[in-house]
Write a structure and sequence with these properties.
The complex is a heterodimer of chains A (131) and B (553). Chain A contains five helices and five strands; from the N terminus they run βαβαβαβαβα. Chain A has 131 residues and is an alpha/beta fold. In chain A, strands 2-1-3-4-5 form a five-stranded parallel β-sheet, sandwiched between helices. In chain A, β1, α1 and β2 form a beta-alpha-beta unit. In chain A, α2 runs parallel beside α3 and α3 packs parallel to α4. Chain B has 553 residues and is α+β, with helices and mostly antiparallel strands. Chain B folds into four domains: 142 residues, Beta-Lactamase (2-Layer Sandwich); 101 residues, Beta-Lactamase (2-Layer Sandwich), CATH 3.30.450; 125 residues, Orthogonal Bundle (Helix Hairpins); 150 residues, Histidine kinase-like ATPase, C-terminal domain (Heat Shock Protein 90), CATH 3.30.565. Chain B is 52% helix and 20% strand. In chain B, strands 2-1-5-4-3 form a five-stranded antiparallel β-sheet, with helices on both faces. In chain B, β8 and β9 form a beta hairpin. Classes of the chains: A alpha/beta (131), B alpha+beta (553). Chains A and B meet through α1 of A and α6 and α7 of B.
């Protein structure tokens, strides 16, 4: 299954490991270390699922989420938050994120969510093409 | 908060001020009213007496004047010759008597003192008065009024003598007047029980008979008064008794009219008023004092209550701000810790991934790697639990609003722990109010609290004990009260003050995070309720949770 994944987080060690693990499972993954970088990438590439940290310097997760939903609304976004308030996660949901996960992340759980998000995207795409 | 003595002093100060401000005007008013009224009243009494004595004096003077006029008219309209005739005199006398019965007799006396004619009941035909002192006086002055005396007639009377000069000779027309008339004139003053009235002459010899004690012509001990015009009212003592005396000298004779009045009688209404005033003043002062004490007590009581409430509020605010500060700290720490934890977990996971593929399965250290990685992941997850709980502690999510049946919720929670309790010989007894109303609240958060407290209760007892769960409805406060009492080891006073603090635990390291009760406290507060505890070391602890039936806000 080749779900195109974009990971956005400002912690380089975290990003590096996530990329390695997804690649190990033969899932194409791209990394961005900031919201701006993510949006720049989105201009040229399209992704199925975006995994994004809520708290980042510069453009934070919520702002980036809004932009993503504007430019590529069918792209599913999973929010990661190590931040104290689950509020941002909930806010993200209301802004269109697929789900939110508290750090530290259980990888299997995350994988599961990615798969489900992909399924939803395909469903939505199917509907669109039917229109 | 002020100490007991301070409150007492405040109370006394307030009462003293109120009393001072009310008593002083009250007393001033009372005294002023009394003094003014007294002076007016006394003035009236004196005025009345003065009027009385003047009226009486006028009456008596009028009477005397009339008699004198009658005689004078008679003496100057008739001649000596005419009146010397006995028969004529008798006729004249009869006419006199028509006007006034007080004429006792009538005499015509010549300038030698011989009785020329006499008309009357006594035998005075041959009496000569030349030697009598009055004779000379009458001859000299033309008119003479005597004092009362008994004289030949043995009967109190006085005489009026009128001298007429008629063609070279003088003669006297003399009449005796019954002094009884004075008695009745004088005594007809209505003077109450002890009042009196009498006439005395310049030597204090009674001319009339007073009501009490003396008879006419007695000399009484009485102060001497020089002749004065008009009337006087004075208060003085005679023979040890003080009375009011109204005095007036008669015009026609040297007689003093004395009206005696008992000041006590006259002034008794005033004295009664004085007593009444005193009573009212006293009563008023008592009422004011009572009112002052009552008001002060309720004021100070209110003050005490307000200060107590404020102290309680301060305490709860301190607790809340402590909680808030710690909440922020916890959140900050959690966030800073979660990121490194996430990385550690991923790295370990990555190593696991690699291990699953590598052919180092044969290597002797493989088992060690796998084991180590497993442990790493386990403990990271353990750390994650702590941080997530801490985040839960700091969370500011709005609680759900649902209808919750507390009894059912408690039963559910009880069922989670029944096995554990059973193993340890701990009985959980329930005593629910069957008609407990449902409350608007968040069931899962409440369950977290109940679970936490029941858990603590079990740990406190350890082995063999009883946990009693009670629910009650406080209709006055519109609240539901849940109490969980254990027969465990209890806690000291210091511990009860710290028990809700985050990270405070009495358990060994690793057995408890110390967050349970502080989270419970936070939850109950957000649900609009209160949580409190009572504990006796060695006997047990009771947690009491009160939740409003209707959610506030």
């Amino acid at each position: 299954m080749s779900i195109r994944i974009l990971i956005v987080d400002d912690e380089p060690d975290f990003i590096e490991t996530m990329v390695k693990r997804f690649t190990f499972r033969k899932m194409p993954v791209t990394a961005a270390t900031s919201g701006i970088e993510a949006l720049t990438l989105l201009e040229t590439e399209s992704f199925d699922v975006v995994i994004m940290d809520v708290r980042m310097p510069g453009k934070d997760g919520i702002e980036t989420l809004k932009e993503i939903k504007k430019r590529a609304p069918l792209t599913e976004v999973i929010m990661l938050t190590g931040h104290a308030s689950v509020e941002s996660g909930m806010r993200g949901m209301s802004l269109g994120a697929y789900d939110y996960v508290l750090k530290p992340v259980d990888f299997e759980e995350l994988l599961d969510k990615v798969r489900k998000a992909y399924e939803r995207k395909q469903l939505n795409e199917g509907r669109h093409s039917a229109d | 908060m002020m100490r007991q003595e301070d409150y007492k002093r405040l109370r006394l100060k307030i009462i003293a001020t109120i009393l001072a401000f009310s008593f002083v005007p009250l007393l001033v008013l009372g005294v002023t009213i009394h003094v003014k009224t007294e002076s007016v009243y006394v003035g009236k009494v004196y005025g009345n007496l003065r009027t009385l004595v003047e009226n009486k004096k006028t009456t008596i003077d009028l009477f005397l004047n009339e008699r004198i006029s009658q005689l004078t008219t008679l003496a100057f309209t008739e001649t000596f010759e005419q009146l010397s005739d006995q028969g004529y005199l008798e006729k004249a006398f009869a006419i006199l008597q028509i006007h006034s019965k007080s004429f006792l007799d009538l005499q015509v006396i010549d300038q030698d003192g011989d009785t020329v004619a006499y008309c009357g009941p006594y035998n005075l035909q041959d009496v000569n008065y030349a030697q009598e002192p009055w004779f000379a006086m009458a001859m000299a002055r033309g008119l003479y009024v005597s004092d009362v005396f008994l004289g030949f007639r043995k009967y109190p009377h006085f005489i009026i003598a009128v001298t007429r000069r008629e063609g070279g000779r003088s003669w006297i027309l003399r009449a005796a007047i019954d002094s009884d008339i004075f008695d009745s004139l004088v005594r007809s003053v209505h003077l109450g029980a002890t009042g009196d009235a009498f006439l005395i002459n310049a030597d204090n010899v009674l001319q009339t008979r007073p009501r009490f004690e003396y008879s006419v012509l007695d000399e009484i001990s009485f102060p001497r008064f020089a002749r004065f015009s008009g009337s006087r009212v004075e208060e003085f003592s005679v023979k040890g008794k003080t009375s009011l005396y109204a005095l007036a000298w008669l015009d026609n004779t040297d007689w003093l009219l004395v009206i005696k009045d008992d000041p006590r009688e006259e002034l008794s209404p005033l004295y009664r008023a004085r007593w009444l005033l005193g009573f009212i003043l006293l009563g008023g002062m008592l009422v004011i004092t009572g009112g002052a004490v009552f008001i002060t007590n309720s004021m100070v009581g209110q003050l005490v209550r307000s200060e107590r409430e404020k102290a309680a509020l301060d305490a709860s605010l301190t607790q809340s701000s402590k909680m808030a500060a710690l909440g922020k700290l916890a959140a900050g720490v959690a966030h800073e810790v979660n990121n490194p934890l996430a990385i550690i977990l991923e790295k370990a996971g990555w190593m696991r991934d690699l291990l699953s593929e590598e052919d180092i399965k044969a290597s002797p250290n493989f088992k060690e790697y796998e084991d180590a990685l497993q442990k790493i992941e386990f403990h990271v997850r353990r750390a994650k639990d702590v941080t997530h709980r801490m985040l839960g502690f700091a969370r500011r999510m709005e609680p759900l609003r649902d209808d919750v049946n507390v009894n059912i919720l408690l039963d559910q929670t009880k069922s989670f722990l029944e096995n554990e309790a059973g193993f340890r010989g701990i009985k959980i007894v329930t005593d629910y109010n069957k008609w407990l109303p449902c409350i608007t609240s968040d069931a899962s958060q409440l369950q977290q609290v109940f679970l936490n407290i029941l858990d603590n209760a079990i740990d406190a007892i350890d082995r063999d004990g009883v946990i009693t769960v009670t629910t009650r409805h406080d209709s006055e406060a519109a609240a539901v009260v849940i109490s969980i009492a254990d027969t465990g080891k209890g806690m000291s006073k210091e511990m009860t003050e710290k028990i809700f603090d985050p990270f405070f635990t009495t358990k060994k390291v690793g057995e408890g995070t110390g967050l349970g009760l502080s989270i419970s406290y936070s939850i109950i507060e957000k649900l609009g309720g209160t949580i409190a505890l009572k504990s006796t070391e060695g006997k047990g602890t009771t947690f009491t949770i009160s939740l409003p039936v209707k959610s506030r806000g």
